[in-house]
Amino acid sequence: xxxxxxxxxxxxxxxxxxxxxxxxxxxxxxxxxxxxxxxxxxxxxxxxxxxxxxxxxxxxxxxxxxxxxxxxxxxxxxxxxxxxxxxxxxxxxxxxxxxxxxxxxxxxxxxxxxxxxxxxxxxxxxxxxxxxxxxxxxxxxxxxxxxxxxxxxxxxxxxxxxxxxxxxxxxxxxxxxxxxxxxxxxxxxxxxxxxxxxxxxxxxxxxxxxxxxxxxxxxxxxxxxxxxxxxxxxxxxxxxxxxxxxxxxxxxxx
Length: 254
Known about the structure:
Blueprint: H1 4-15, E1 19-24, H2 31-44, E2 48-51, H3 61-69, E3 76-78, E4 92-98, H4 104-120, E5 124-132, H5 140-145, H6 155-167, E6 172-176, H7 187-195, E7 201-204, H8 210-219, E8 223-226, H9 228-232, H10 236-253
Parallel strand pairs: 1-2, 1-8, 2-3, 3-4, 4-5, 5-6, 6-7, 7-8
Helix pairs in contact: 2-3, 2-10, 6-7, 7-8, 8-10
């Protein structure tokens, strides 16, 4: 792949640095709120805005993205609950395949149906091996996908799943404990997967503190994704983004 966003992800992975992404659920934000969010993200030097949700009953996705981009040059990457949730105003699409589950619809079925639309969208399409990790509480993703997550203490299963996705040609991996997770993914599991794979790794779910952000970055996360915590307190964006930047400085000075 030669897309600009994918190349940026690969550079982060190659240099051992981490990026910071804010995840916005379109069902929990208004177009007007996106202007304020853009200002906060600009100030914090956020690397990516991920946009998408498990349900998406709000039909203002295009307008929300337009409002954000009117105030910010931060790349907008779609993180859809289904591959059909598209917007031509975004910059890229994480084309998610649930490789940790056994639901054929989310492994390939929905992709076949959406392929013509995705191909014609003009978006940078990034093939993504999506791995749901047990965060200690049932999540919308696990319910909607009819899939059991990988047990939190089974780093070997996570690694083998990641290997399978990488060898099948996925361009990135995404390990997610889910929105509202009680327990974030362990640094041990992140490190096990990151050190033994060559492709960029997104990590999200249950991350609420700068300390956890820093720990996950040091464990090898290519991009830290924060969503639910920021929905409760948007002021955390600067604090959590700063922890990511601090980990990059620490990496340089090692």
